[in-house]
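I have been asked to look over a protein record a colleague put together. This is what I was given:
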Amino acid sequence: MGNTRGEVVLNDRQEIEVATSAWKDFLSLIKIGIVNSNLITTFTGIWLALYFSGKGFLENIDIVVFTLLGTAAIIAGSCAINNFYDRDIDHVMERTRLRPTVTGRISSFQVLLLGTGFISIGTILLLMVSVSAAVIGLLGVFSYIVLYTMWTKRQYTINTVVGSIAGAVPPLIGWAAVDDLNIIAWILFLIMFIWQPPHFLALAMKRSEEYRKAGIPMLPVVHGFEVTKRQIIVWVACLLPLPFYLFSLGIGFIVLATVLNIIWLILSLIGLKMKNDLKWSKWMFIYSINYLTILFVAMVAFSII
């Protein structure tokens, strides 16, 4: 009886480990970090559209829920297909070598099925909210899968800029779910679009040798760190005027956003003199993540105050 009880406990542990491993594989496949960060910007688009159109949040909670679920689904599906397409090079890079598409824990057919399924479900959910939100979502899917993953990622250093189109779409989806796009919605798009090159170029500097081995022509790999640093400075400087277009959120927001931009610009300029490029790129990468989170949460907060 003792042995039987021990076998049951062992089997239970094994089942839990298998389930945990499968869940981790699923989260890795859909790139849950990207999904979560994009939901922040989507929610901000929804919230500001409700705020500026004079509509209540609770009265439109169905729009909020369907839009967030639909956006999460199309992003998850797009990321899954990206993983499917890149399975031949992901084994070279340290941060991607354990993805289930590389290890074979999830078959290629299952990945494609899951990816297309999520995109289809997400599109249906967005259609339940508005046609324009669904169309914008599909344009984001196309730009990420076709223009970025299949076309520019492995051929051109401009791949980072092309990939930024898809990453800037979520706040437009959120806004379009509530109201027609206006100047504020497009400023949110521009903030996201301009934020991404310095963010991902910093990451590319950190992982330049891995990208080189994988044959991906990231800017630091092809043109070196000095050119990359100068381009990062230009992109960050382009963010400086954008908060002033959001004057409706109040002087407090403009001051906060401008301070965040100036700090990032100063940090970018420090890179021209700093000898340890990898340490600097790590600083830039970490700051960019915090910058985005603080900025978009502040938009919501200052609209409440």
About this structure: The chain has a mean pLDDT of 93. The chain has two domains: 20-178, 181-304.
